[in-house]
Amino acid sequence: MATTKRKKIELDARNQAPGRLASKIATLLIGKHKVNFDPHLDRGDKVVVINVDQIAFTGNKLHQKEYKHHTMHPGGLKIKPAKKVLAENPKEVIRHAVAKMLPKNKLRAGRLQRLSFK
Length: 118
Hints:
Blueprint (H helix, E strand, L loop, with lengths): L7 E5 L5 H13 L15 E5 L10 H4 L1 E5 L6 E5 H7 L1 H12 L6 H6 L1 E3 L1
Parallel strand pairs: 1-2, 2-5
Antiparallel strand pairs: 3-4
């Protein structure tokens, strides 16, 4: 079996909505844009996202959207508003959106490792 040639694709996040950008990134990481796409093989490309700190939320999402995480202990629901997450670590907004768009299978971790930021 031949090894996969992975291209390095650079995307600019300036003034783009996180969800629309994440769907483009997920498609590139999965490899759906390639002619030889197979769902059970990992043939996606490497994706580098630049200007992540200049991402644009539309409407009131910056103030209303919340990121939730549960520790699996009683009373362990942790909630952070999008404004705070964006201020602390803007890369986490994109990484979270992309992770939710990738298929939940054994290839997911490797695909997420090919996502990087500048």
